[in-house]
Amino acid sequence: FQRLRAGLSRSSSALGQSITGLVRKRKLDDEMLQDLEDALIQADLGVDTAMRITEELARRRYDKQVTADEVRSVLAEEVEKVLKPVTKPLQPDFSHKPHVLLMVGVNGSGKTTTIGKLAAKFRADGRKVVMGAGDTFRAAAIEQLKVWGERTGATVVAKAQGSDASGVAWETLDVAKREGADIALVDTAGRLQNKAHLMDELTKIVRVIRKHDETAPHDVILVLDATTGQNAMQQVEIFRQVCGVTGLVMTKLDGTARGGILVAISDKHELPVHAIGIGEGVEDLEAFDAGQFARAIAG
Ligand code: GDP
Hints:
Domain AAA+ ATPase: 97-289
Low-confidence stretches: none
Domain Signal recognition particle SRP54 helical bundle: 4-83
Largest sheet: 8 strands, mixed
Bound molecules: guanosine-5'-diphosphate
Structural class: alpha/beta
Oligomer: single chain
Subcellular location: Cell inner membrane; Cell membrane; Cytoplasm
Radius of gyration: 21 Å
EC number: 3.6.5.4
Strand content: 5-15%
Order of helices and strands: HEHHEHEHEHEHEHEHEHEEH
Binding site for GTP: 105-112, 187-191, 251-254
């Protein structure tokens, strides 16, 4: 919690400070409500959420003296109300043998790192893990996954840079079946520059996985970089159109000024939020906790 708080402190202290500035020894009037709403929108919480929070504040305290702490506590409560229903730990069904998890998201969002962190967790639980280096566009992504393989003792399936990603996915499932693996983690490239191409590539990967096992992929996890702020909302919309996203992981919450976007995304899309990334290290993936996140946002 301390690390999440430290990470979110840039956004929360910005929001916390504006709340302190706005509230200082004043009655809760229309002007203050408007200023608070603006501050929440600035913090990426989204217009609908911001309006609901200020309405709730008005319902409770209109025309009364309020303190910054009271405002922060209502804020934390309302944010938690949005986040609680989407809080859902990742729960692979290992009886699938293998459970197939496809990781999608734009380049640099943290897909490969998140796969490595998940592999480490499953390995620590004694699970057999196979990772597929489906980001065939970047040689570095393939190398990075191999390093995670050595570090975690998970099998890595990789082909040369530029190979067909769906071929890698197919072989990953082949190897996973052959080795009796519990889970297959399949990486992908995320070049958003060309949406038609992205769609072609991802639908082909999903089709190939489905051909191998008609119940798969069992999880399609969209990785979002918290530092991209409002762009993350757009990414959710695009990837939902392109492939059936089943859940989210938000990364880089250790360095962001924009954690509020997760609240806006959850309010609008109601997609399960599985975990958050709070650093580059193997331990830096945590199950999502709505209450903690809400308190960190509120400052
Ligand atoms: P990909 O292109 O989506 O596979 O992204 P990568 O996994 O290669 O990550 C891109 C960069 O972000 C790398 O330098 C990672 O170390 C870094 N990264 C990933 N997750 C986190 C996180 O939670 N916090 C921080 N600070 N960096 C992260």
